[in-house]
Amino acid sequence: MTRVVAIQAGLSETSSSRLLADRLVASIERQVPGATAEVVDLRPLAHDITDAVLSGYAPPRLQHVLDLVGSADALVAVTPVFQASYAGLFKMFVDVLESDLVIGKPVVLAATGGTARHSLVIDHALRPLFGYLQALVVPTGVFASPHDWGSEGASALTERVDRAVGELASLLGGSGTGRSREDDIDLFSETMLSISDPPRQF
Question: Domain of 184: which CATH number?
Answer without folding.
Answer: 3.40.50.360
